[in-house]
Amino acid sequence: MDYFKLAKEYNTPFYIYDFDKIKERFTMLKDAFKARKSQIFYAVKANSNLSVLKFLASLDSGFDCVSAGEIYRALKAGAKNYKIIFSGVGKGADELKYALEQNILYINLESQEEMLLLEQIAKENQKVARISIRVNPNVDAKTHPYISTGLHENKFGVDIENAKKMYIYAKNSAYLEPVGVHFHIGSQILDISSIHEASIIVAKLVRELLALKINIKFFDIGGGLGVCYKDEQEPSLYDYAQGILSSLHGLDVCIGMEPGRFLVANAGEFVTKVLYEKFNEKKRFVIVDGAMNDLLRPSLYSAYHEIELLGANSEESLCDIVGGVCESGDFLAKDRSLAKTQAGDLIVVKSAGAYGFSMSSNYNSRNRVCELAQENGVVRMIRKRESYEEQVALELEYLKE
Predict the structure, then answer these.
(1) Which of 48, 127, 131, 373 has the fewest CB atoms within 10 Å, measured from its CB?
(2) Residue ranges of the domains in the chain?
(3) Residue 152's pLDDT band (boundaries 50, 70, 90)?
(4) Catalytic-role residue among 228, 254, 326, 370
């Protein structure tokens, strides 16, 4: 790929996504579960660009949404409403009503209080709400604490006993229809034994519910499959699938999956341009036009992304690659070995397709960058670069003399 040509045409910084790689990953995961009924619900939060969603919808993907805004995006991109599920620990009344109005597949409930609120909204609108309950199986996902979600100390889901009570209540409600069970123990999971352990626990719950004449149709195993950012060994999809399938022996359920990072992380790159180099005493800084407002993961999680300096051939030395945001935490990489750079050189940040643009902001009143897609060797723009006028458009009419 000619990054310099792209930089000249579209300016920098920018994101670029390889749609062919996304399709390859989607097909790999789907094929791993081909022995059973299954449905992929792409986790929209990972990368919510409309063109990405439209492309996944064309592959027959469903969508896991965690806000009404994500439901709206999925529908705008051509998603089928019966392939949308609504998750998240803090859904508001307006969001629940919107989800009911759109007649999505089901709503993942995270508390008794949320269930009672949804029941009230359904009653007021004379609808029956299809529900699933997110079970917190108290299993350690062995991942970064910020993205661990399956322990009792985490804010997500309900414990097994409370889940049973909620299912029984829902079964006896005229406005709730329990159709699924859900768990998701964390993100960037490389040791899949934790997912298998959770699956065994939750499958046992499903068998107990069936004994109570509560017919669970969807067994949602969440997402969280880890990917390679540096030198990690990605889990075997065959082993992953077989562990899930063995826990479901004798159960007639459709397996739901919520991959996000797995599908898009390594299909995306962030390209930024060198502005200057500087030294403070012996510390070397490479200053680029991208920053933490464009790619937050390194600042937020100390996340590692591979860095490639294009065309470099000189001796390397350690440096921090930093942006122009007025925060000491504004960096894309720390203590990396990099050749001498010059203004105009390009740096490619790898594995940036997930939680990159979707977590970006206008901090320091910086414009959000453009997004590009590559498909069958052709590159096209799928989001234009923001302008200052667009940044302030929602405020201008309220500006007073």
Answers:
(1) 127
(2) 3-15+266-396, 33-259
(3) very low
(4) 326
